[in-house]
Amino acid sequence: MTQACPVDTREFRDALSTFATGVALITTQSERGPVGIMVNSFASVSLDPPLVLWSIGNDSKRKPAFDANPLSAIHVLSNAQKADCMAFTKNAYAFEGLPMADNGDGPPLLSGCLARFECEEYAHHLAGDHTIIITRVVRVTTGEADPLVFHKGSFGTIS
Hints:
By secondary structure, the protein is mainly β. The chain has one domain: Pnp Oxidase, Chain A (Roll), CATH 2.30.110. It is 11% helix and 45% strand. It is built from three helices and twelve strands; from the N terminus they run αβββββαβαββββββ. The strands form three sheets. Strands 3-2-6-9-10-5-4 form a seven-stranded antiparallel sheet. It has a three-stranded antiparallel sheet with strand order 1-11-12, with no helix packed on it. The protein starts with 8 loop residues before the first helix and ends with a strand.
């Protein structure tokens, strides 16, 4: 049963924005080609099996691609990748010019990330106006750089 939120939506968003988070680019393949979406709703779930989660708005035009394809890749972005990846905030197909690793028919793999998790679908859970997507990690790649963080509506880094 859905109930109206007793908290002002703007006040709620502003309070959530005080929690500094990393930034991730999630990718998959679609009928139109590779798709990407920037998120800050990424978290670990389990070590055994290795599970992670992220969430997507139910009204997102990118959601059908992630619903249809059980394979995805989660890229934890470095501060150096900010300019290259900001295009994904407006364009799901903004891969041109990005350094990519060959992955055949699998999800697009961005090179140079702090961490990359290659995943397969585990579960989807409807949660209010979003869907929580839980994936099982099948391969991990790590790198070294300053992280890209999101805090109070702005991107930055910590050293």
